[in-house]
Design brief:
Structural class: alpha+beta
Order of helices and strands: HEHEHEEEEH
Helix content: 25-40%
Largest sheet: 2 strands, parallel
Number of strands: 6
Distance between the termini: 25 Å
Strand content: 15-25%
Oligomer: single chain
Length: 120
């Protein structure tokens, strides 16, 4: 999230306003709308956060072709959550054409985002 936010700030005028970043939680039990908003605001106030029921989030993951997040019990009675870290890129035709793995650098995003904005 931080790398995308920094890259958006480096884009030429007008490009950043054409990018909509939507973060979908994998942990709706912990991530209320207020919690997501607060977290996303640390990166960019334009970022959008989505949450829902656990069933709806799992269905969205499966529909996107991603493995669902998996809970694991911790010794203190809490739980950990394992989940994939991908960015699905939707272009103006509302289809996901690219999947980026986690760990993309600011430079990678700054290079690719203008090209993605130009896609038909």
């Amino acid at each position: 999230m931080a790398n995308v936010a920094v890259a958006l700030k480096k884009l030429p005028s007008g490009f950043a306003d054409q990018v909509k970043l939507v973060f979908v939680t994998t942990d709706p039990a912990r991530d209320s709308a207020k919690t997501l908003r607060s977290w996303l605001d640390h990166f960019d106030k334009r970022f959008i956060g989505l949450t829902g029921t656990e069933a709806a989030i799992e269905a969205a993951q499966v529909a996107a072709g991603l493995p669902p997040a998996k809970k694991s019990a911790l010794a203190n009675g809490d739980y950990g959550l394992g989940h994939p870290s991908f960015v699905l890129v939707y272009t103006k035709d509302n289809l996901a054409h690219l999947i980026y793995p986690g760990g993309m650098s600011q430079q990678d995003w700054a290079h690719d985002l203008p090209q993605l904005v130009r896609e038909p």
